[in-house]
Amino acid sequence: MLLLKHYSFELAFEYPFTISKGTKTHQPTLITSLGLGNMIGYGEAPAITYYNITVPEMVASLEEKRSMIERYALTDPHRFWHFLHHLIPGQHFLTAALDIAAWDLFAQMRRQPLHQLLGIKWGPVPNTDYTIGIDTTAAMVAKMEAHPWPMYKIKAGSPDDIDTLRALRAHTDVPFRVDANEGWTFDEAKALLPELKKLNVTLLEQPLPAGEYDAMKELKVITPIPLFADESCRTEDEVKKCADGFHGINIKLTKCGGITPALRMIKEARALGMKVMMGSMNESTVGSAAIANLMPLLDEVDADGPLLLKEDVATGLKYDNGAIQLSGGNGLGVKFIGKYDVDNHK
């Protein structure tokens, strides 16, 4: 019988984190664990306000379904995901936390690192970027100087941010990725593309609102920069919709529902000739380790959550100038060090 536990945290950012959708100083996150004997698997679901996801609501769902989850016989994480898909339909963030925990536990049961259990041959892997949130130009420059990195992801929210990008470029020659988080119109994006190219922007993420597939098709024809879908490709049923308007997709484990559907999304994207990136939702080392174990399957990775947070709840990843190194342990390879939360822990 599985033993389900959960832990709630408000993890402080090193700097206030601002994107086009708002600012936050802390990242609420839910850590789930599934135990069997002396083995424990961990998963994570950060709560995101603009998706109407809160930790208390996820905890309430867990408690409501606790007995059914704990009675499940974990013989195949794929089957467990389908069980969750029907048990808590539409709750992709919570499903992701439980799915990741199940994969972590199952790989420990098989005495293998997760990537090895999945049959992923370890080879050259992409480096992660370091994200610079929207701020004053001086503050953004200061963040870069405090965190020298071989590649930065710059958050943008309006076409005026081109002036900020020019100012940042004066301080470094490393590649930039720009993430507009749906912040531009078609005409604004069209006008900015040549300027972004001049500034050595190597990837542009979600320039237009999620539903504007036809406009993205037009933008793809004229862009000199690869376009990656984020908000336009939250779940696996949206992968095909993005094929004509984007060069690649940015998979978020929390949005799609975990490792199980993410593997299917990767396979479908490859079949459609698209590149694959996996991105962060400001996860701690727990959620970031799930991403890291899949890195050989990816063209690009954005797994800098632990770098952006002042505090963490686990160990097991090492960051070295863009490179992410796993611990080599079984499962995710993480050790949970989070504090016991009397009010929210069961």
What does this structure look like?
The chain is globular, with a radius of gyration of 20 Å. The longest helix has 18 residues. It has an 8-stranded parallel beta sheet. It has a 3-stranded antiparallel beta sheet with strand order 1-2-3. A two-stranded antiparallel ribbon has the order 12-15. The chain has 346 residues and is α/β, with parallel strands linked by helices. The chain has 12 helices and 15 strands. The chain is 35% helix and 24% strand.
Summarize the SSE layout with pairings.
Blueprint (H helix, E strand, L loop, with lengths): L2 E17 L2 E15 L2 E8 L8 H16 L6 H11 L4 H18 L4 H4 L12 E3 L4 H10 L5 E4 L5 H9 L6 E4 L6 H13 L2 E5 L7 H10 L4 E3 L18 E4 L1 H4 L2 H13 L3 E5 L5 H8 L7 E3 L2 H4 L5 E2 L1 E4 L2 E4 L8 E2 L10
Parallel strand pairs: 4-5, 5-6, 6-7, 7-8, 8-9, 9-10, 10-11
Antiparallel strand pairs: 1-2, 2-3, 12-15, 13-14
Please give a handful of descriptors for the protein shown.
346 residues; alpha/beta; 3-stranded antiparallel β-sheet; disordered C terminus
Describe this structure in a few short sentences.
The chain is of the alpha/beta class. About 35% of the residues lie in helices and about 25% in strands.
